[in-house]
Design brief:
Elements lengths: L6 H8 L9 H8 L5 E12 L2 E8 L12 E8 L2 E8 L10 E6 L5 H8 L5 E5 L15 E7 L4 H13 L4 E8 L9 H7 L5 E7 H4 L4 H11 L3 E5 L2 H13 L7
Parallel strand pairs: 7-8, 7-10, 8-9
Antiparallel strand pairs: 1-2, 1-6, 2-5, 3-4, 3-6
Length: 255
């Protein structure tokens, strides 16, 4: 839209930022209204050789509170070029002193490789403000079923931390598909919290041993839990696989 300088109007007319919101800061850059936050990033907990949490701290002041399930975009310079990647926030939502993300290193990933190579340094980065709509429903007693694949567990870590912090009453079940048990990404505070809780349960699906989550298991998960909402997060192939089988049993995947 020629001559438009209002973000909300531009979004309304073009549809930009109406789905996941990951392009928000690029649109603001075009409008000359960038709201990047300056911060430092360094490694936190190492889960395995290729997965590590990173703590992001503001240079000045504190960060905005976010809604569990939202993400930020991290921007840094590598070999003279600027790179941007989006990561779900997994820290406690009301802690404004730092954000925490979990990063998986990919063999051909310029961004993740550079972060891991400099993980023990305080690296300066730009980050966006939190955004995204992959959040818990407002119905505080909702029955929820979550399918996570690999690094796709991250928004669900944020969900559980919020449930823990606010003593929320959601009935929530997780089916977590990983290559093998040692590759699971479950922080100790989450693992300890889940134990003994009658409103939260976690099932680990070992794909090396069992293959992809099969249709029978998906149907049984839905039948046994009778969820009001189903959340799916993981690699595209994983998400498509789950949606395909949910569609076959006529579950409304728009939920």
């Amino acid at each position: 839209m020629q001559g438009c300088h209002d973000f909300n109007q531009l979004s309304q007319e073009t549809g930009a930022c109406k789905t996941c919101g990951s392009c928000r800061n690029r649109v603001l850059d075009i409008l000359g209204q960038s709201d990047w936050l300056y911060a430092t990033i360094h490694a936190g907990l190492q889960y395995n050789e290729n997965v590590c949490s990173f703590l992001i701290k503001p240079i000045d002041g504190t960060f905005p509170i976010f809604i569990p399930g939202q993400f930020i975009t991290v921007k840094l310079q590598v070999d003279g070029l600027w790179y941007e990647r989006s990561y779900t926030l997994v820290s406690y939502a009301r802690k404004k002193e730092f954000y925490e993300i979990i990063v998986k290193r990919y063999a051909k990933g310029k961004f993740s490789q550079w972060l891991f190579e400099h993980k023990n340094e305080d690296v300066f980065v730009w980050i966006s403000k939190p955004s995204g709509k992959f959040v818990l429903p407002p119905e505080s007693h909702a029955n929820i079923l979550c399918f996570a694949g690999g690094i796709g567990i991250t928004p669900f870590i944020a969900f559980i931390r919020d449930i823990k912090e606010l003593d929320l009453k959601y009935q929530i079940s997780f089916v977590y598909a990983v290559e093998n048990i040692p590759s699971t990404i479950v922080p100790d505070d989450i693992d300890d919290f889940i134990k003994g809780r009658d409103n939260i349960d976690l099932t680990i699906w070992d794909t090396i041993t069992n293959g992809l989550i099969n249709a029978t298991s998906i149907r049984e998960s839905v039948k046994n839990r009778r969820p009001d909402f189903i959340y799916i997060c993981g690699p595209e192939g994983f998400e498509n696989h789950i949606v395909k089988h949910l569609t076959e049993i006529n579950f409304d995947s728009s939920k």
